[in-house]
Every structure is written in structure tokens, then in C-alpha cells.
Amino acid sequence: MINISRKLFFLVAACLPINLGYHFIVKEAYAGGLLIDYLIPTLFIQDLLVLALIISWSLSSSFKEDWKKIITFPQVVLAIWFVFAMLLSVFESGRTLPSLVFFARTALYVLFMFYTATNFNFDRDFGLLTKIFTVSVFLLGLLGVAQYLHQGSIFDNYLVFGEQPYDSRIVSIAKENVFGYTKIPAYGLFRHPNIFGGILSILLIWIFQKYLQTRSKSLLFVFLTGIFALVVTFSYLSWASLVIGIILVFSKQHGKKAAMLFVIAILVAGFLMPSVRNKLVNENPSVYRRINLLNASYKIISSEVLFGVGINNSIVALEKNIPWSKDIRFVQPVHNIFVLVLLEMGLVGFLLFVLILGYVFLQMWQNNSFLYIALLQIIFLGSFDHYFVTIHQPWLLLWLIIGMCASLGSVSKTSRF
């Protein structure tokens, strides 16, 4: 069973970018007459694979010993309380089914983190995991560049790895002005170019560090392919995330201190976006949408600060409180994962979430592990977008990284990787 669990772990990693799932269209998935993607109960292929891994692990001979070990990890204890707080949040939800589905998925991914914390061995497993992500970035890079050149989906069939069919005829599709021409960014296998760009920006740093160690021409080729794909997502925050990661790869101790200050500054900036007032902001949809969502969220939080509105239920509340704008109706989760957790789970869930991320970041920062760069990128991206909580692929990647941090932190207090 141990060998089966290990194979399933790497299969989950290989399938991480896939967007394929079965969607259950139910009445609770509608808000204000609109079918809301985030409220649709969906069973993704990753959910099934993680479930199979957890079952296999629970039947293994090492399961009891693993649990005795894992319960001593502070981040694991915090995660257990976080899941419990999320369960309580389900009872605060007006839309119970979407809330329950999100809770079940999170519980699975947290258990996946537990498995990673006790069974992932950096000396044995990190090389293979990096190879898997290298292949993923290469294939996603080729797909992304092809989508941009084609100005639409390539397979045009959701059943092929979950690529959503799209072209210029779809009104809600993302569009960018490139030297006076309207262009559609690359989506990859994700629901939005920002998600594609965010995932690429993190995995490209892993590949870049491996290239610096090996000077492999094939790794350099994959890295450049991923860069091209990242560029044509036109996800400016993801571009910044990659630049930040590269700077931190080359900077040593001084870079670490700057990284800590940067994290604090970004968190503050993410919360204070509504205080920004100028003509450029008012005319930029990407900015004023975020500000409108933050303003509506703060209004709701002021009356729901203790328990929140219920997990995966914020869109329903936001739809009733978001101010009118020049847009077609724009109903999405608030574009800040910390405000989102506070809005949906209340103060206790928010504090637990911050403590989990804060603990693993400080642990990796002190241990001089490269994983602190990935965590900083997630904090940066999550301060201005929601997908690291609301979308299954980044949500799974986050818990994988937390599990890797727990594994590394439990065996080493010195510089690693």
C-alpha cells in the first residue's frame, strides 16, 4: 500500500493542472438569476485521485505511526482547527450544498497535506516531482502559445484535459489591447489567464533553480517555453510574481530580510486598495472591480465579523451589496484570499489561515529553504486575486507546498534546496 500511495501522490502532481470535472447544475448555483461557476458543485479528477491516495494511505502499515508523528507538527494542528472552523462555517451558509462541497474538497486536500508532510522525502522525491512539473510546464507552455497564436482553444472540447472552449465570439472572454489590436490571452487548462500565469510563475522558479544547479539545456528550453506562455497570459501580477521569485533566487540574506518587509507591505496594500483614488484607477476595470468587491466585503464583514457568511457563500452576499459600475454584471469572489476567508469564515477562520501561512513561511525563511519563495509568491498573488482559495488547482498546490514545508521543517534546520 505504501508503494501504491507514493504512485498516487505523483499521479496527483502530474494531473494538478487538469480542469476536468463533472458539474452538477443545481438551483443553489444561481445568484441573482445568473449561473455562478463558483457555486456549481463539481467533482474534479484531482478530488478522486486524492481520495484514492488517502484510502490507500489509511490501509498502509505506516498509517498509525504517521499520525503519531504528524500530530506533533504545529501547522498540522492549525490545519485541523482550520478544517473544523470551516465545518462550523457550513452551518452559517445560506447555500448549504456549495458550502459542503467546498468543505469536503478542502478536507481532502488538507489530508493530502498530511500525507505529504509525513511521506514526502526531499532527497528521494523532490527530483521526480520537479521532473513532473517540468513536463507539465513544457506541455502547458506549448498549449498556451498555440492558444494565443490561434486566438482560441486548441482542442475545443472540455473533455480533453478540461480545456474550456473559447474564441473571440464569447462576450465574457478576457481580451487585451496589444499595440492597438485586440488579443485573447492564453488560458491553458485554467479558467482564467491570471490563474494560468500565477501557476506558471511559481513552477518556473522551481525549474529555474534546477537549471542553475545543472545548467541543462533542456531545462533552459522548458523555462523559456514557460516564459513565452506566461507573457501571453497578459497576467501582470504573474509577471511581477516571476520577477520577484527570480530576484529572491539570486539574493541571499539581504534578500530574505527584504522579502519579509515585502510580505508585510503587500498584505497591507491588499487590504488598503479601496483607499486608492485617482483617474487611472477609476478607468481601469481590473482595479475598480477589485476595489468595489473589497468595499462590499468590508461592509458585510462589519456585521458578520465573528462567523462570516459561510464558506463558499460570499458571492451571494456580494451580489446584493456590490455597487453599480460601468461593467456588465461582474459577480466574483473578493480578489484577496485573506479578506475572502475573513468574509466567509469570520475572525477565527481568518486567524487560523493566517497562522498556517505565517508559520510555514517563517519556518522556511529561517531554514533558508527555497519554498519560502513559493509561499511569498502565493501571498503576493493572493493579496490581489482569489484563485488560490476558490479554484481547485491552485488550492491543491497550496496544500502540497504546505505539506512539503512541514516535511522539510521536520527533518532539517539548515539550508536545503
Notable traits:
417 residues, disordered C terminus, 66% helix, 6 strands, single chain, 4% strand, WaaL-like, two-stranded antiparallel sheet, mainly alpha
Q: How would you describe this protein?
A:
- It is a single chain.
- It is built from 17 helices and six strands.
- It is mainly alpha-helical.
- A hairpin with a 2-residue loop joins strand 5 and strand 6 (181-183).
- The chain is globular, with a radius of gyration of 21 Å.
- Residues 413-417 have low confidence and may be disordered.
- It holds the Pfam family Wzy_C.
- This is O-antigen ligase-related domain-containing protein.
Shape annotation: globular
**Helical residue percent band:** 55-70%
Side-by-side strand order of the widest sheet: 1-4
What is the terminal-to-terminal distance?
Answer: 29 Å
The overall pLDDT average reads 90
How many beta-strand runs? 6
State Rg. Answer: 21 Å
Beta content comes to under 5%
Provide the structure class: mainly alpha
> How are helices and strands ordered from N to C?
HEEEEHHHHHEEHHHHHHHHHHH
Please give the largest β-sheet: 2 strands, antiparallel
List the helices and strands and how they pair.
Layout: H1 2-15, E1 21-23, E2 30-31, E3 34-35, E4 42-44, H2 45-58, H3 63-70, H4 74-90, H5 96-119, H6 122-150, E5 176-178, E6 181-183, H7 193-214, H8 217-231, H9 236-250, H10 253-271, H11 279-283, H12 285-304, H13 314-321, H14 337-367, H15 371-382, H16 387-390, H17 392-411
Antiparallel strand pairs: 1-4, 2-3, 5-6
